[in-house]
Design a protein that fits this description.
Blueprint (H helix, E strand, L loop, with lengths): L5 E5 L6 H9 L6 E3 L3 E2 L14 E2 L2 H9 L3 E8 L2 E6 H9 L3 E5 L2 H10 L4 E7 L3 H11 L4 H15 L7 E4 L3 H16 L5
Parallel strand pairs: 1-7, 1-8, 2-7, 3-4, 8-9
Antiparallel strand pairs: 3-6, 5-6
Helix pairs in contact: 5-6
Length: about 190
């Protein structure tokens, strides 16, 4: 199996990593394809199976764990699993593309550990915990209880930032986008057209 590069973007929920990843995917010269994660959570809004996530039941997820089908996985909250299937990375590498991930901190660090030379692990740091809470509330996708769980988890995740190769401080989105683009271009060895 030929391997491309793995670009991991991790951060607490609401930090802006998804916005950054979507921006990078729109830049053809970077030759990126998005790694679709598997999850046992329910669909939100107009999410599509096989496009936003591979939606599995908790039992199906556990079966795939037992079968060794995951590159990395995490039980983020009770019976709420997220993970990266080996087959997903192989699918993208078979297309001759580099894999970009938008995943939680623990998963990002596991990928870096398994593929240390092929992986660029980037942590997206929010301006503050208070700003994170404001961003999560603006989404209007989760209950107050879920938001509070995410905020509690964010404090722990922020402590892992030094374990990543690079930290992008997302205080100004335009600056963060430019910084992310330069980091990825340098890592995959291409120049901006």
């Amino acid at each position: 199996m030929s391997t491309g590069k793995l670009i991991v973007f991790s951060a607490p929920s609401g930090s802006g990593k998804t916005t950054i990843v979507k921006h990078l995917l729109g830049l053809d010269y970077l030759n990126l394809a998005f790694s679709i994660s598997a999850t046992s959570r329910s669909k939100r809004g107009d999410e599509k199976d096989g496009e936003d996530y591979y939606f599995l039941t908790a039992n199906a997820f556990k079966e795939k764990i037992k079968a060794g089908e995951f590159l990395e996985w995490e039980e983020v909250y009770r019976d709420s699993f997220y993970g990266t299937l080996h087959a997903e990375v192989e699918r993208i590498w078979a297309m001759g593309k580099n894999v970009i991930f938008d995943i939680d901190v623990a998963g990002g660090l596991r990928i870096k550990k398994k593929f240390p030379n092929e992986t660029l692990a980037v942590f997206v740091k929010p301006p503050s915990i208070d700003e994170l809470k404001i961003r999560l509330k603006k989404r209007k996708t989760e209950s107050e209880e879920k938001i509070n769980m995410r905020i509690a988890k964010a404090s722990i995740e922020l402590a892992t930032a030094p374990q990543f190769d690079k930290i992008i401080k997302n205080y100004d989105l335009n600056i963060a986008l430019k910084e992310a683009e330069q980091l990825v271009a340098d890592f995959v060895g291409v120049k901006k057209p």
